[in-house]
């Protein structure tokens, strides 16, 4: 039994949104499928850290969900990215998944999933703000995301699980930070955090990979990891 992670699958089997036009994204679903089949076994768990599908609705995203559901893995734990416009309420998504026999897909949102002694926790997160420059809307969204992360981590801790954190947005990037998110990571003494969202070589170089202020960060955006699901344990 193994745990994997990858972010930013950016699937578009149900809509016209070719990714091949972006450098580093040529045949990315072919690469992902090949690497996934090589690495992931039926009993494994994989976290998909946001920007799952370009579909604008659940119906438009359905071919992408079906593609993911058919790949190996007992549980595919999905969190929201900034491009997941199909995302609706937990209840609606779960009903939709059940109605379409998407039996391996799980939604990570104000909750956690047990993986052995670990708790898989996370939320989308939000953009980083320069001190003194934050707009009121950004501050509100950050506070809400920080609260969601706190709820998710509390859920793990209440079950005696050791939390692992998965986010879409990086809470640290270059010299910028999202302090509300960081405060939650520090409060819960989180040691490891995986995140996506950062694309392209010119952006990857500012990404934090390694320990900063006691948290070990890992960028796992699809293009950064050459669409190879990353084994955590
Ligand atoms: Fe993305
Ligand atoms: Fe993103």
Core attributes:
233 residues; alpha/beta; Purple Acid Phosphatase, chain A, domain 2; six-stranded mixed sheet; five-stranded mixed sheet; 6 helices; 30% helix; globular; binds fe (ii) ion
Written description of the protein model:
The chain is α/β, with parallel strands linked by helices and about 230 residues long. The chain contains 6 helices and 13 strands. The protein has a single domain, classed as Purple Acid Phosphatase, chain A, domain 2, CATH 3.60.21.10. The strands form 3 sheets. It has a 6-stranded mixed beta sheet with strand order 5-6-7-10-12-11, covered by helices on one side. Strand 6 (about 120-125), helix 4 and strand 7 (about 160-165) form a beta-alpha-beta unit. The protein binds fe (ii) ion (2 copies).
Give the topology, please.
Layout: E1 3-6, H1 28-39, E2 45-49, H2 58-70, E3 75-79, H3 90-99, E4 105-107, E5 113-115, E6 118-123, H4 136-158, E7 162-167, E8 172-173, E9 176-177, H5 179-187, E10 192-195, H6 201-204, E11 210-212, E12 215-219, E13 230-231
| Uncertain residue segments | none
Helix and strand sequence:
EHEHEHEEEHEEEHEHEEE
Q: Based on CA inertia axes, which overall geometry fits?
A: globular
- The CATH topology corresponds to Purple Acid Phosphatase, chain A, domain 2
DSSP summary: helix tally: 6
Number of strands: 13
For the record, the CATH class is Alpha Beta
Identify the strand order in the major beta sheet.
5-6-7-10-12-11
Gap from first CA to last CA? 9 Å
**Class of secondary structure makeup:** alpha/beta
- Counted up, domains total 1
Give me the CATH architecture, please.
4-Layer Sandwich
> What's the name of the CATH homologous superfamily?
Metallo-dependent phosphatases
The Rg value, from CA coordinates, equals 17 Å
Query: What is the share of helical residues?
Result: 25-40%
Can you give the mean pLDDT?
96
- Which small-molecule ligands are present, each listed once? fe (ii) ion
Q: What share of the residues does DSSP label as strand, in percent?
A: 15-25%
Biggest beta sheet attributes: 6 strands, mixed
């Amino acid at each position: 039994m193994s745990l994997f992670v990858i972010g930013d699958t950016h699937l578009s089997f149900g809509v016209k949104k070719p990714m091949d036009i972006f450098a580093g994204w040529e045949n990315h679903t072919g690469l992902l499928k090949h690497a996934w089949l090589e690495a992931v076994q039926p009993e494994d768990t994989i976290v998909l850290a946001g920007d799952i599908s370009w579909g604008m609705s659940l119906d438009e995203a359905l071919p992408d969900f079906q593609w993911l559901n058919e790949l190996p893995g007992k549980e595919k734990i999905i969190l929201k990215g900034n491009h997941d416009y199909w995302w609706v309420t937990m209840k609606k998504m779960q009903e939709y998944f059940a109605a379409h026999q998407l039996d391996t897909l799980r939604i990570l949102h104000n909750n956690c999933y047990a993986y052995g002694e670990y708790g898989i926790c996370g939320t989308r997160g939000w953009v980083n703000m320069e001190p003194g420059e934050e707009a009121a809307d950004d501050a509100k969204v950050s506070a809400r995301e920080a609260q969601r992360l706190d709820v998710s981590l509390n859920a793990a801790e209440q079950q005696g699980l050791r939390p692992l954190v998965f986010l879409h947005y990086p809470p640290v990037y270059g010299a910028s930070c999202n302090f509300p998110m960081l405060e939650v990571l520090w409060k819960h003494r989180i040691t490891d955090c995986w995140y996506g969202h950062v694309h392209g070589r010119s952006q990857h170089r500012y990404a934090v990979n390694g320990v900063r202020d006691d948290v070990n960060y890992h960028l796992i955006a699809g293009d950064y990891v050459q669409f190879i699901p990353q084994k955590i344990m």
